[in-house]
Write a structure and sequence with these properties.
There is one protein chain. The protein is an all-alpha fold and about 300 residues long. Among the domains are: about 130 residues, no CATH class; about 80 residues, no CATH class. About 75% of the residues lie in helices and about 0% in strands. It is built from 14 helices and no strands. α1 runs parallel beside α3, α2 runs antiparallel to α3 and α10 runs parallel beside α14.
């Protein structure tokens, strides 16, 4: 019995020692892993501090930081860390600099970036975004980004359209509309065109008010839907019943377009003008409507009933 117990005790001791050795080995491995992760975190923190803690009042330092970040991304590729650095750097810079000023800084470094094999198209894409979207809207876009997901998508080679769709995917319909409108209004060309169109619309509405008055109709008629169309057809000596063509899909709409063109010729005739003037009313309405309004010689003669 004693021998048996001794053998069993020896087995237990061996198992215990084996477990201890395994535990010690695991502990060593865990310590090495923790040490490696800590070192990596320290490196990232140091790297972040180098990129984020810049003096934005020192343009030379700002220029060098932007240039170095672009060169690093170009050589090592975009990853989560660089993406975070880019977003944070842009956020810091826009506390003092406008997008146009950031573009100027990039342009100054453009030749050096080219010498270091940075793709010109990539530089121009960045410049284009900065030109077309103002600071507040770009910051709004960046606030919608999940850095982890975006970095993965960039590495997987997903298109910008796909990434933008995913960014707006979780928004409500109203938020999506506001988001798109903000981006469109931020684009300078589109904003200019919209302003011109609004001014032109207001100007034309005022012109039509005067034309209605010259024709002996109510000056406020252009502000009332349907009634304004009825009134215009009467001024042109045409039947208001033509408007019922709106109720007939496709064919009716095509015929109504023809009627609207014909009304320009009838309007010209109603004010004693010829065919050339009628073409002008059709193709360059604001200019020729201005002539009708401001020309003292131009009077409404109407049509014989």
């Amino acid at each position: 019995m004693i021998k048996t117990n001794t053998k069993e005790n020896r087995k237990i001791i061996k198992i215990f020692i084996t477990l201890c050795l395994i535990s010690i080995l695991c502990l060593i491995l865990n310590l090495n892993t923790v040490r490696a992760e800590t070192t990596l975190m320290l490196k990232q923190t140091t790297s972040n501090e180098q990129n984020y803690q810049i003096n934005i009042n020192d343009e030379a330092e700002v220029s060098e930081t932007i240039k170095n970040l672009i060169l690093t991304i170009n050589s090592e590729g975009m990853n989560k860390n660089f993406l975070s650095q880019t977003i944070e750097l842009y956020t810091q810079l826009t506390e003092k600099y406008t997008n146009n000023e950031i573009i100027d800084i990039i342009e100054k470094n453009k030749s050096e970036l080219k010498e270091n094999n940075v793709n010109t198209e990539n530089i121009n894409s960045v410049i284009k975004i900065l030109k077309n979207v103002d600071t507040n809207n770009l910051r709004k876009i960046l606030s919608q980004i999940d850095v982890d997901e975006l970095a993965t998508k960039i590495n997987n080679g997903e298109s910008a359209q796909s990434i933008l769709f995913d960014i707006t995917g979780e928004m409500t319909t109203a938020e999506k509309v506001n988001f798109v409108v903000d981006i469109l209004l931020a684009a300078r060309n589109i904003k200019t065109i919209l302003i011109i169109l609004v001014i032109l619309f207001i100007y034309r509405t005022l012109l039509i008010c005067v034309i209605y008055k010259k024709a002996g109709k109510k000056a406020w008629a252009p502000f009332v839907p349907i009634y304004r169309n009825v009134t215009m057809l009467k001024i042109c000596g045409m039947s208001p019943w033509w408007l019922l063509l709106l109720l007939i899909p496709v064919v009716g709409w095509i015929l109504l377009f023809i009627v609207s063109v014909a009304s320009k010729f009838m309007l010209a005739e109603a004010f004693g003008k010829g065919t050339v003037f009628a073409f002008g009313l059709w193709l360059l309405a604001p200019i020729f409507e201005t002539i009708i309004v401001f020309s003292k010689k131009t009077k409404y003669i109407g049509f014989e009933e």
